[in-house]
Amino acid sequence: MHRLKVRAASLKRNTYALYLAARDPRVSPLAKFLIAIIVAYILSPIDLIPDFIPVIGYLDDLLLLPLGIALVIRMIPHEVWQSCQQQASKELTMQTPYRAQVVIIITLIWVITLAYLGFLCWQWYVNRAA
After folding, report:
1. For the whole model, what pTM was predicted?
2. CB burial readout 30-62, b (16+ within 10 A) else e
3. What ranges do the domains of the chain cover?
4. Are 104 and 44 a contacting pair, CB within 8 Å?
5. Following CA atoms 103, 3, 82, 32 in sequence, which dihedral angle do they give, to the nearest 10 degrees?
6. Beta-carbon neighbour count of residue 20 at 10 Å?
7. What is the pLDDT of residues 15-47, one digit of tens each?
């Protein structure tokens, strides 16, 4: 159980360090793009593979995210990554009040996207019926 808590804390620190690395000008645009996708997916309340599906539901959380993070870490210059990890460790010990705001914004983006897709489907249905 202790090992699991350590890994969860490491994932949290690495996620925040990735966010910091994405803001560093020494990181390549491709790495920044991949970081944005990974951090958004981690913070998103919606999973690629829903967790309620037996066995494969946690596959993305257990395999895909760590592999994606490991890939992106290799794309970041070593000195930048070390600096970002140190800064993340310092900042995560303090309370960050904007964390809830980030989750709300990502949730709103999903809701707006799904509402727009629903609107498009409704328009298609109405036009088809006419």
Report:
1. 0.59
2. ebbebbeebbebbeeeeeeeeeeeeeeeeebbe
3. 2-94, 97-130
4. no
5. -40
6. 19
7. 889 889 999 999 999 999 998 888 777 777 777
